[in-house]
Amino acid sequence: MILNLLVGIGLSTAAGLRVFTPFLTISIASYYGVIVPPESLEWLATNQAVIVLSVATISELIAYEVPWFNNLLNLISIPFATIAGIIITASFLTDASPLQQWSLSIIAGGGTALTADLFSNTAHVALTATSGGTANPIFSLIESALTIAISVVAIIAITVPVALILVPILFKLIKWVGDFFHPSQNIN
């Protein structure tokens, strides 16, 4: 249940930045059999869902590149991103009791999506104020890339045992800490 919650939170974070990207990621992964979608999202494994979500995602990614239009999208996206975060998280918590499922989905999924969306909105408004909107397309491109990366990593977390990901990171961290506290004496 904890891994599913983390996957839901990861995809909810992505939904807070771009609403359709996590749904497209789930759809493609389900369509190609990379993951078995939760029962409530089985419809995402269809050819029609992949096509519709591809068009919606590409349209959303392009629309965020228009400086004045992305501010409008940011306002509109607040409730949609929050609802998407709740739905995504709830769909991955099917083994939980209904109280746990919906409490965690609203607080963790919806809250994470809302937080990511509000951060994005604040950054876009600040960039518009400081750069006249000229920096917004670059920021939007970075956000879009981050959204895709978060969505893909969340799906990978379902398919790859966590140990395969964490063990190399842990060894690297231990090495870094050791190097930090015991620097090499070979300074020339």
TrEMBL record:
Name of the protein in question: DUF4126 domain-containing protein
Residue ranges of the TM segments: 7-32, 44-64, 71-93, 146-171
Organism of this sequence: Proteinivorax tanatarense
Domain of life where this protein originates: Bacteria
Alphabetical UniProt keywords: Membrane, Transmembrane, Transmembrane helix
Signal peptide start and end residues: none
Domain DUF4126, first and last residues per copy: 5-171
UniProt key word Transmembrane helix: yes
